[in-house]
Each structure stands twice: as C-alpha cells, then as structure tokens.
Amino acid sequence: MNRYNLVKYTAFSLEILLCYIIQSTPGLTLEVFGGRPVLMLPVAMTISIFESEIPAIVFGVVCGLMADSGYSGPMGYYAIMLAILCYIVSILMENYIKTNLLTAVLIGAVSIPIIISVQFLLFYVVMGYGYVGEYFAAHYISRIIYTFAFVPVFYGMNRFIAAKTIT
User: Where do the H-state alpha helices sit in the chain?
Assistant: First the structure.
C-alpha cells in the first residue's frame, strides 16, 4: 500500500468512526418525526463511489457492522446489504457511470429506501407485529429522508479526501 492510500484509508476510517460515535450517542442526532438517520449508509455508499471493489466491500462491511451494533436486530443485516451495495456502486462508477454529485444522489435515492424498507419488512412485518403502516409512516419514512439528506454532505467530504490523496 502506498502512502497516498494509507492517508486516504485513514481519513475514511476516522470519518466512519466519527459518524458511528455521532449516530450511536443519544442526543447527538436529533430525532426528526420519529426517526434517526443511519449515517453508515451514506458514508459507505459515498466511499465506494471513489474506491475499487475490494476496499469498497471492506468499508461497506465495516460500516454495516457498526450500523448493526447501533440498531436492534440480528447482527449482519447492514453488513451484508452494505457489502453488496458498495460492490455494485464501485463497479458502476469504475465502468459505467460518471462520478458526480447527481449520480451519488440518484444512487442514494434508490438504495437508501430499499435497504431501510427491506430491514422493516424482515424485522417488523415478518415478525408479525401489528399496525405496520402506521409504524412505517411514523418511524421509517422520516429515517429514510433523514438518512438521504446526508448523501451530498458525505459525497463532498469523500470527494475531497479522494482528490487530495490521488497519486
């Protein structure tokens, strides 16, 4: 690993750690309309925009495990989903799509609702809880929107990190 990658990966790791602390510390993120953001989703997704497949998967798994530890439910859901998402995003950005804010926002607009909604389906609906529609509307729609709002912020931060560490 060259010096530039070491600096870049260290910066990404510090960003992930800081976001995990912010996400998991009560009172640091406001609860908006019953939902708190899943900061690890936009962090992992935007890092994978600037990385090749293997680093993208590694950062996706790390962010996923951190998200899993911060939310109730079995360990591994976010780790698996973010590993898959980061791999797909990395492949798309390297081969098919131009890297810019618009594509990051579009990828976030598709992936964040899917990942959070599948979590709701697997761990709320399938478990047989009642008032499914009301609970989704009260807690998950705001979580999706709140999480999505951070995509441009993390895209800008990760673009800056990636641009400053190019060989």
Answer: 3-24, 40-49, 53-70, 77-95, 101-120, 132-135, 141-148, 151-164
**Distance (Å, whole) CA 141 – CA 72:** 18
Domain limits for position 10: 3-164
Inter-residue contact 89 to 55 (CB < 8 Å): no
Pairwise CA distance, residues 94 & 113, whole Å: 24
3-state class (DSSP) for residue 32: strand
Question: Which CATH number does the domain housing residue 90 bear?
Answer: 1.10.1760
Q: How far apart are CA 77 and CA 118, in angstroms?
A: 10
Q: Which amino acid is at 104?
A: A
Tell me, what amino acid is at 148?
Answer: F
Tally the domains of the chain.
1
State pLDDT tens for residues 121-159: 888 787 777 778 888 888 888 889 989 999 999 999 999
Sorted by sequence, the CB contacts under 8 Å of residue 77 that are 6+ apart come out as 64, 68, 119, 122, 123
Read off the pLDDT of residues 32-85 as tens digits, 9 standing for 90 and up. Answer: 776 778 889 999 999 999 998 999 999 999 999 988 887 656 788 899 999 999
User: CB-based burial of residue 49 (10 Å sphere; 0-12 exposed, 13-18 middle, 19+ buried)?
Assistant: buried
